[in-house]
Amino acid sequence: MKETSWEYAGRNVEEATQTALEELGLEPDDIHVEILEEPQKGFLGLGGKEARIRVELIGEWEAVKTKMSPREIVAPEIEVEEEDRGQETFLTKEGGELPESSKPIVMVKDILEMIGTEAMVEGRLRDESIVVDVWGDDVAILIGKAGATLDAMQYLLNIACRRKGDVDRKIILDVEGYRKRRKAKVEKQADQSARKAIAENRSIELPPMNASERKVVHMSLRKLGGVWTESIGEEPDRRVVIHPPDSST
User: Fold this and answer.
1) 88 confidence band (pLDDT: 50, 70, 90)
2) How many angstroms separate the CA atoms of 105 and 12, rounded?
3) One-letter-per-residue 3-state SS of the chain
4) Sequence ranges of the domains in the chain
5) Mind listing the pLDDT tens digit for each residue in 202-213?
6) Counting beta carbons within 10 angstroms of the beta carbon of residue 32, is it exposed (0 to 12), middle (13 to 18) or buried (19 or more)?
């Protein structure tokens, strides 16, 4: 039976949660945390107990977790020519292009080959992340409904690279600029709904969104100000509610 949740421990709940996020390569809005045991201080520093939590994936990761546990994902062995081994260390210049022998690029090419899709793959450094772009004639299949397939591939790519110790940055996988366009669309929808909530002095519910899209709404409206937001409901119908400033519900 495949795992659908994982347990972590730490000196406190925050430390245990951070450990889970780093190992799974996810963001806080991607997981549900259940506190199994609060930390306990021992007598004179002896006999204390760590905090224990259970982590379960939510949102777009639901389909992934039923198929394969992150702990069971193993990155494929990739042969690298001896003269290229120095290129496995990513370029230090921020914003520079990654060499074709970089593991994230090679892994994406392997996935494309397995599903029989020809495309161009490029990688770039962006601050603390690695952006891998895919371009081609038949790459729409990689996006899926509301980006679900793209998110699942990005998740697997992060887990595989982290387990092999090849990457210490978050990998962002994109297909022909889909994420940028989708982010702009969600931000516009959030902005219009927020202004409507203020004008009509009532709460506005947005359509169901995955975890990453909900995060875009929360972050964009935090910058706008004048409203406050919350996520309600259960997956896959979880959604963001935008409240006017004087709303207490």
Assistant:
1) very low
2) 37
3) CCCCCEEEEECCHHHHHHHHHHHHCCCHHHEEEEEEECCECCECCECCECEEEEEEECHHHHHHHCCCCHHHCCCCCCCCCHHHHHHHCCCCCCCCECCCCCHHHHHHHHHHHHCCCCCEEEEEEECCEEEEEEECCCCHHHCCHHHHHHHHHHHHHHHHHHHCCCCCCEEEEEECCHHHHHHHHHHHHHHHHHHHHHHHCCCEECCCCCHHHHHHHHHHHHHHCCCEEEEECCCCCCEEEEECCCCCC
4) 6-71, 84-176, 180-243
5) 999 999 988 888
6) middle
What is the CATH superfamily name and number for domain 180-243? R3H-like domain (3.30.1370.50)
Would you say 50 and 9 are in contact if contact means Cβ atoms under 8 Å apart? yes
CATH code of the domain occupying 84-176 = 3.30.300.20
Place of tokens 């914003």: 95
pLDDT in tens, 153-174: 888 888 888 776 667 788 889 9
What's the first-to-final CA gap in the chain, in angstroms? 41
- Contacting residues for 233 by C-beta, under 8 A, at least 6 apart: 208, 239
pTM: 0.56
Please identify which residue in the block is written with the tokens 């450094």. Answer: 125
The C-alpha atoms of residue 248 and residue 27 are separated, in whole angstroms, by: 28
The structure tokens listed for 73 are 């994902």
Angle at 55 between CA 216 and CA 214, to 5 degrees: 10
